[in-house]
TrEMBL record:
The lineage of its organism: Bacteria, Bacillati, Actinomycetota, Actinomycetes, Kitasatosporales. It comes from the Bacteria. This is Na(+)/H(+) antiporter NhaA. Coiled coil: none annotated. GO terms for cellular component: plasma membrane. It catalyses: Na(+)(in) + 2 H(+)(out) = Na(+)(out) + 2 H(+)(in). It comes from Streptomyces finlayi. The gene is nhaA.
Length: 439
């Protein structure tokens, strides 16, 4: 009797082990960032190909429930709908940082918070100065404020073999605060005429969501319909619908009760992170990054005041804001830089934060809802993100070589206890502080 191998169907359901492997891969920043980069490249290639008309037809095709005011284009569904999943995961990360992470105490939160605030204020100020000097519109002041956490962490993960783990923690905390600032900007400054009945109903739904968490009600069948309803009502109210995703992420409980293997927030993030990294953000990038890239378009990026302000804000503003904000906080307050880090690391991280892809594109769409200027601003976001990523990669690779040499020296200093002497107080070249001075 011969055994036949099961057929593998194209676009069929993956076998369970493969599905688990794909999900775990998408939970890493490296893979998620690469998927995002791939979607952006496909969008650019498609929008600049002979089939660009088909791209526009797919992006602008509308479907939904007209009776509920949800007859949206594919592009709007990805921006207003799928990105709510991304912001839900971001809200969970923020809640975790506030409860058990770097933001739980003022002493540890001071530097990344100062860096994030200055990293939002300086790019916005540079945009305003550039736009004012060129007689341009100030509507896009918030575009260069945002840092793309997926792209930035992906670049750091690719480079980071010897870089200290505290560098990633600093970037994650900074990006979480940055995301919160972007959410507040979207909610306050990019809200259309409010429908107070819908807004009140959305808030009521979020209150019910909180009460279900408060009274330890379990079961996705309670939360999924309630979350979708709150999202739809938030959209109808005129407030950007992604705010509902953030609110639910902040409401989810991050502490474990007795008998629980993980908290509701951790379980939700574990389930939704592959959806966010593998579906929501790449599809948004696919329909947001498709801009015509030509010599004429690039000329507008560096000559029109609005896109030029975006590029300057991302490339120059982020470096100045984050580095100077961190330095001034460490110089004039009780806050201290993590002993594992040197100022060269902070400078490289500040350059890396200039990658503003996802949220910057979203704010750009809200600030410039149509026309040629909207396309130029999108091109400016892409250009500024690339121009920020290149020096960041160069700087951090150099820092990585420094740490690799330190590791080689530490390996030579190991003795019988298996612990490098550099980490033992009073031994080696002056104890643990010597490594930092060598940097």
């Amino acid at each position: 009797m011969t055994r036949t191998r099961p057929r593998c169907l194209l676009f069929g359901v993956l076998p369970w082990p493969e599905r688990q492997a794909v999900s775990e891969a998408l939970r890493t920043e490296t893979v998620g960032g690469l998927v995002l980069l791939g979607a952006a490249l496909v969008a650019l290639a498609w929008a600049n190909s002979p089939w660009s008309a088909a791209y526009e037809q797919v992006r602008d095709a509308r479907f939904g429930i007209p009776a509920l005011g949800l007859n949206l284009s594919v592009g709007h569904w990805t921006a207003d709908g799928l990105l709510a999943v991304f912001f839900l995961v971001a809200g969970i990360e923020l809640k975790r940082e506030l409860v058990v992470g770097e933001l739980r105490t003022p002493a540890t939160a001071a530097l990344p918070v100062a860096a994030a605030l200055c990293g939002m204020a300086v790019p916005a100020a540079l945009y305003v100065l550039t736009a004012t000097a060129g007689g341009g519109s100030l509507e896009g002041w918030a575009v260069p404020m945002a840092t793309d956490i997926a792209f930035a962490l992906a670049v750091l993960a690719v480079i980071s073999t010897h870089l200290p783990a505290s560098l990633r923690a600093f970037l994650l905390t900074l990006a979480v605060v940055d995301d919160l600032g972007a959410i507040l900007v979207i909610a306050v400054f990019f809200t259309s005429a409010l429908n107070f009945w819908a807004l009140g109903a959305a808030v009521s739904g979020l209150v019910v969501f909180y009460l279900l968490q408060r009274f330890r009600v379990h079961g996705w069948w309670w939360y999924a319909p309630l979350g979708i309803t709150a999202w739809a009502l938030m959209y109808t109210s005129g407030v950007h619908a992604t705010v509902a995703g953030v609110a639910m992420g902040l409401i989810l409980r991050t502490t474990r009760d007795e008998g629980e293997e993980s908290s509701p927030a951790a379980r939700t993030a574990h389930l939704l992170r592959p959806v966010s990294a593998g579906v929501a953000v790449p599809l948004f990038a696919l329909f947001a990054a498709g801009v015509g890239v030509s010599l004429g378009a690039l000329t507008h990026v560096f000559t029109d005041p609005e896109p030029l302000g975006v590029v300057i804000g991302l490339v120059v503003g982020k470096i100045l804001g984050i580095f100077l904000g961190t330095y001034l906080a460490a110089r004039f307050t009780r806050a201290q830089l993590n002993p594992e880090l040197a100022w060269g690391d902070v400078f490289g991280l500040a350059a890396l934060a200039g990658i503003g892809f996802t949220v910057a594109l979203l704010i750009g769409e809200l600030a410039f809802p149509g026309g040629a200027e909207a396309e130029y601003v999108k091109a400016a976001v892409l250009t500024g993100s690339v121009l920020a990523a290149v020096p960041a990669a160069v700087i951090l690779r150099r820092r990585n070589r420094v740490y690799r040499r330190l590791c080689e020296v530490e390996d030579l200093d190991e003795d019988a206890d298996g612990i490098p002497d550099i980490y033992q107080a009073g031994r080696g070249a002056g104890g643990a502080g010597a490594g930092r001075e060598a940097r």
